[in-house]
């Protein structure tokens, strides 16, 4: 499968996500955060990678405070060319507009090897951990850099869960997919 054959799946899933109202996205994001906070992997993590949501993505803002109360440090990505650097940030209000309008942190980059749990966005996910990104490959490259033991979690609205995502050699799957309705655990190799 090449990038052009992923285009129809990407377009259909993006359209479904955009069709959600702001109220539906807020409510679903709240339920997703509740599910995330119940995961033992997240509750026991000392360093968690999150992301600053674009308007139509799952908003993880309300997970930051509870993670800090549990003693976790939160990291956010910053685009540097083809790579994502990870920067510690405790408050989304400190982030600045960066690559493609995504809010990014300032500061010194942190070694990706320290991440215990990575919660990542995607355009679509399947129940087996397949992840379809926006097409730039930034998250695939980052996920490949993380330690083998790092738990990778896809956060998505239920409309982004599809039966199957054909994966290419460079595509990096996730271990769990969390939506407002379900948690899909994938058997780790």
Helix content: 25-40%
User: Which CATH class is shown?
Assistant: Alpha Beta
The backbone outline, from C-alpha atoms, is globular
Distance between the termini: 23 Å
Count of DSSP-assigned helices: 5
Over the alpha carbons, how many angstroms does the gyration radius reach? 15 Å
- The largest beta-sheet arranges its strands as 6-3-2-1-7-10-11-12
Order of helices and strands: HHHEHEEEEEEEEHEEE
- Structure classification: alpha/beta
Determine the mean pLDDT: 92
CATH superfamily: NagB/RpiA/CoA transferase-like
Unreliably modeled segments: none
Please tally the β strands and state the result: 12
The largest sheet, given as strand count, sense and whether it forms a barrel, is: 8 strands, mixed
Shape-level CATH architecture: 3-Layer(aba) Sandwich
Strand content: 15-25%
What's the number of domains? 1
CATH topology assignment: Rossmann fold
